[in-house]
Automatic annotation (TrEMBL):
This protein's GO CC annotations: cytosol
Entries under InterPro entries matching the protein: aa-tRNA-synt_IIb, aa-tRNA-synth_II, aa-tRNA-synth_II/BPL/LPL, Anticodon-bd, Anticodon-bd_dom_sf, Pro-tRNA-ligase_IIa, Pro-tRNA-synth_IIa_bac-type, Pro-tRNA-Synthase_IIa_type1
Protein name: Proline--tRNA ligase
Protein keywords: Aminoacyl-tRNA synthetase, ATP-binding, Cytoplasm, Ligase, Nucleotide-binding, Protein biosynthesis
Signal sequence coordinates: none
HAMAP family the record matches: Pro_tRNA_synth_type1 (MF_01569)
Protein family per UniProt: Belongs to the class-II aminoacyl-tRNA synthetase family. ProS type 1 subfamily.
Record function comment: Catalyzes the attachment of proline to tRNA(Pro) in a two-step reaction: proline is first activated by ATP to form Pro-AMP and then transferred to the acceptor end of tRNA(Pro). As ProRS can inadvertently accommodate and process non-cognate amino acids such as alanine and cysteine, to avoid such errors it has two additional distinct editing activities against alanine. One activity is designated as 'pretransfer' editing and involves the tRNA(Pro)-independent hydrolysis of activated Ala-AMP.
Enzyme class: ligase
Gene this protein is translated from: proS
Molecular function GO terms recorded: aminoacyl-tRNA deacylase activity; ATP binding; catalytic activity, acting on a protein; proline-tRNA ligase activity; transferase activity
Subcellular location: Cytoplasm
């Protein structure tokens, strides 16, 4: 490929808002451009990298025996109502109406569509197990799109869904997918860890693991034990603490909610807690409290309305409650303190808010079928019954071997879940087993962020000058750089080399531009192809300069700088 004919708009400086090293270099090397917050165009070089990553993912999915499909991005709201996620998903779900005012959602993930497909098409154990996958566009209206492709609102994901007749069958598929994920990340040249994880809004009844690319820019914290190899996401990590009141259960959080560690000495009642928190009001944007039996019991929410709204929805999502409508949610968002706890089959909610807000919230919640009771004023809920939850922190130790835990930052590039029958039950998918009994297929789902992978690679392979792409995903293998394209000898040798390299199966980019050598070298460093061949003064004697930043990718990655004279 001739560079003079290619759209590669390199930049000396990255736009000021570019907030991560890899992202700045993807912009500077002319690989991507922002169209709107969290929405990007892939330019020719960037598209080639993305396709290479996709191809690795596709090959490993095919090797794992999965079948490729393509599911629609625009999905009828009814499907999401069936699973109960139309309300639960919150503002991250992009909603729209067609010309007949029918409601749709842009798929942030495809459990609903794929479960409906299985419900309609699979009715016998003889058709199980199978796994479908697709590589395509997802939409999530992320509250804080950032770091370029790392957290986009429109992004490319590979998502796979497995259907099995029982848990053992699911366990086997989960293992196969686990291996496939490790292979994908190794082939991408990533330094990564597999960690125990939390199921988030996808939910499910079984275990779940995340694959974390190690990078300082990562928004996840990984907790590891160097002695026994324990590794978990902070949200999930078990730990031993020196503090006496150890909290056993982990709150469900995402980027919208966080659990703040607050010491509350002597606080025994909600009223006392409120007055205590009042002193630290600006810090207390969102705090969650949990009961020891794993049930969510309380949410203390302060701060702006949007945060309250999201945090409360998140909290309610934990109990799998549905709010009736936005009016109800808006009412909740005025609460300063909310308490939710399982009381019999219903729920109790104690709210410290003004009376009008309270009435509105209780009415709204009752309309939504929630059983709410408890009123202001003066509710004194004894906090001794509540064990406060905190996450593992520096100084805490591993539960199995007692060694100090280590904390590192990671980018969640992949996530695999044992869903069980959550979706098949909710959406009525079933099959007849060997004995003619009707059963729900046991599902698993497996996501990997293809565009996020590209960004994670950029992050791990970034240098001051550019991204040194691993061979496996680099847009081309060899950058052929004649110092002066107009020089007859250089041009001739360049074209000969190009032909020979292509004959050997290499992908070659020729910088045939009429640019100063300095400009060409700077661009070549930015683009970061694995091998550079500079055709200069020695061309008449068939001499070139060879530079390679990387000679191996799979397994351990070596970065080697070398200069050689090639006859
Ligand atoms: P995060 O915790 O970063 O928000 P998630 O847990 O919401 O991610 P999943 O629902 O597990 O994401 O989706 C599967 C994969 O899709 C993730 O592991 C990640 O690689 C990718 N992904 C999720 N959200 C985004 C996004 N906003 N931009 C790019 N990739 C994403
Ligand atoms: Mg998310
Ligand atoms: Mg996550
Ligand atoms: Mg996840």
């Amino acid at each position: 490929m001739r560079q003079s004919e290619m759209l590669v708009p390199t930049l000396r400086e990255a736009p000021a808002e570019a907030d991560a090293t890899g992202h700045r270099l993807l912009l500077r090397s002319g690989m991507i451009r922002q169209v709107a917050a969290g929405i990007y165009s892939y330019l020719p070089l960037g598209r080639r990298v993305l396709l290479n990553v996709e191809q690795i993912v596709r090959e490993e999915m095919d090797r794992a025996g999965c079948q490729e499909v393509l599911l629609p991005i625009m999905q009828p709201a009814e499907l999401w109502e069936e699973s109960g996620r139309y309300t639960q998903y919150g503002p991250e779900l992009m909603r729209l109406k067609d010309r007949h005012m029918r409601e749709f959602a842009l798929g942030p993930t495809h459990e609903e569509v794929v479960t409906a497909l299985a419900r309609d098409e699979v009715n016998s154990y003889r058709k199980l197990p199978f796994t479908l996958y697709q590589i395509g566009t997802k939409f999530r209206d992320e509250r804080r799109p950032r770091f370029g492709l790392l957290r986009g609102r429109e992004f490319i994901m590979k998502d796979a869904y497995s259907f099995a007749s029982d848990w053992e069958e699911l366990d086997r598929t989960y293992q196969v997918m686990n291996t496939a994920y490790c292979r994908i990340l190794e082939r991408c040249g990533l330094d990564f860890l597999r960690v125990e994880a939390d199921a988030g809004t996808i939910g499910g009844q079984g275990e779940t693991h995340e694959f974390m690319a190690l990078a300082d820019v990562g928004e996840d914290t990984i907790v590891t034990c160097k002695t026994c190899g324990y590794a978990a996401n902070l949200e999930k990590a078990a730990f031993q603490s020196a503090a006496p009141a150890i909290l056993t259960n982990k709150p469900k959080v995402n980027e919208h909610t966080e659990v703040l560690r607050v010491e509350t000495p002597g606080v025994r009642t909600i009223a006392e807690l409120c007055s205590f928190l009042g002193k630290n009001a600006e810090e207390m944007v969102k705090t969650l409290l949990y009961l020891a039996d794993g049930q969510l019991v309380a949410a203390i929410v302060r701060g702006d309305h949007e945060l309250n709204d999201i945090a409360l929805k998140q909290v309610l999502g934990c109990e799998e409650l549905e709010l009736a409508d936005d009016a109800t949610i808006a009412a909740h968002s005025n609460l300063t303190v909310g308490y939710l706890g399982p009381v019999g089959l219903g729920l109790r909610m104690v709210v410290d808010a003004d009376v009008a807000t309270m009435k509105h919230a209780v009415t709204g919640a009752n309309e939504a079928g929630m059983h709410l009771s408890g009123v202001r004023p003066g509710v004194d809920f004894p906090l001794d019954q509540v064990e406060r939850i905190r996450f593992a922190a520096e100084g805490d130790c591993c539960v199995s071997c007692g060694e100090p835990l280590v904390f590192t930052k990671g980018i969640e590039v992949g996530h695999i879940f044992k869903l069980g029958t959550k979706y098949s039950d909710a959406m009525g998918a079933s099959f007849l087993d060997r004995n003619g009994r009707q059963c729900a297929p046991v599902m698993g789902c497996y996501g990997i962020g293809v565009s996020r992978l590209m960004a994670a690679i950029a992050e791990q392979y970034a240098t001051e000058e550019g991204i040194q792409w691993p061979v496996s995903v680099a847009p081309y293998d060899v950058h052929l750089i004649p110092v002066s394209w107009k020089d007859e000898h250089q041009q001739k040798l360049t074209l000969e080399l190009e032909q020979q390299l292509m004959d050997c199966g290499f992908r070659v980019l020729v910088d045939d531009r009429d640019e100063r050598p300095g400009v060409k070298f700077k661009d070549a460093e930015l683009i970061g192809l694995p091998v550079h061949i500079v055709v200069g003064r020695g061309a008449a004697e068939a001499q070139v300069e060879l530079g390679a930043h990387m000679l191996a990718v799979s397994g351990e990655t070596k970065r080697i700088s070398m200069k050689a004279q090639e006859a």
